[in-house]
Amino acid sequence: MSFKAAAVQMCSGVDPLKNAAAMARLVREAVAQGATYVQTPEMTGMLQRDRAAARAVLTDETHDIIVKTGSELARELGIHMHVGSTAIALADGKIANRGFLFGPDGRILNRYDKIHMFDVDLDNGESWRESAAYTAGSEARVLSLPFAEMGFAICYDVRFPALFRAQAVAGAEVMTVPAAFTKQTGEAHWEILLRARAIENGVFVIAAAQAGRHEDGRETFGHSMIVDPWGTVLASAGATGEAVIIAEIDPSAVKAAHDKIPNLRNGREFSIEKIAGAVAGGVAA
């Protein structure tokens, strides 16, 4: 069953209310173009480097404005509404980087907490320690929807192929990768990683991104993208500013890709042994 999927590109600021309004406007634009599944980026609700300022406005999910707005949009527009992620306050004082998928009745069908924390030091001086504020998720899911089997990831998760392979083996036909990729890493790896995850698993990949210079001073790469199981980019956005991209998703293309390159079926268990190379006085036997 084919469906129209949209990836909404945003430039979220520090005010969740303003970001919720921007999300609603862009989602309506996507639906006006025929989309029945709409995905927003990682951290739709707020990009705020100042952790104290962020904590001051964060709430649990029952009071979160992005969760509330996402549910209302899904119900009003009769769509599957995917808030790529937003920051949710947890009882222990930490934060979840949590995505939500709402059904056409507004109910939450799935929650996904980002599993892999972005703890890196980039050579341009940027340093990130997500684990200092966020609690990592530990559960991956494949959700059966009326139009496709869907798997979930968020941003840095895309660098961990085992997550995607596990979901593909479990039957996922569409993988979702909402993100707020940094400009430096995005220029180097964003498209390559998305296309690689699509090709190696024979699945569609939908990735809504944050884009441009944000109020907190960070710069994200943009280039929201939808990729088919053969690695073809079906739709993409620019480097900055808001955008809505749409593509027709036909899950039968997943089976066709698997029939051409049956690597999921051909995979085998194997062992690995680390051996020494050259040794003093000769070569290891």
Number of domains: 1
Distance between the termini: 58 Å
Strand order across the biggest sheet? 5-4-3-2-1-16
**Helix-strand topology string:** EHEHHEEEEEEEHEHEEEEEEHHEE
State mean pLDDT (0 to 100 scale). Answer: 94
How much helix, percentage-wise, in residues? 25-40%
Give start-end ranges of low-pLDDT stretches. Answer: none
- Assess the beta-strand content as a share of residues: 25-35%
The shape, in one word, is: globular
Rg from Cα = 20 Å
CATH first level = Alpha Beta
Q: Could you state the CATH homologous superfamily?
A: Carbon-nitrogen hydrolase
For the largest beta-sheet, the strand count, sense and barrel status come to: 6 strands, mixed
CATH topology group? Nitrilase/N-carbamoyl-D-aminoacid amidohydrolase
Walk me through what this model shows.
The protein has 285 residues and is an alpha+beta fold. It has one domain (3-283): Nitrilase/N-carbamoyl-D-aminoacid amidohydrolase (4-Layer Sandwich), CATH 3.60.110.10. The protein has seven helices and 18 strands. A six-stranded mixed beta sheet has the order 5-4-3-2-1-16, with helices on one face. α1 runs parallel beside α3. It is globular and about 60 Å long.
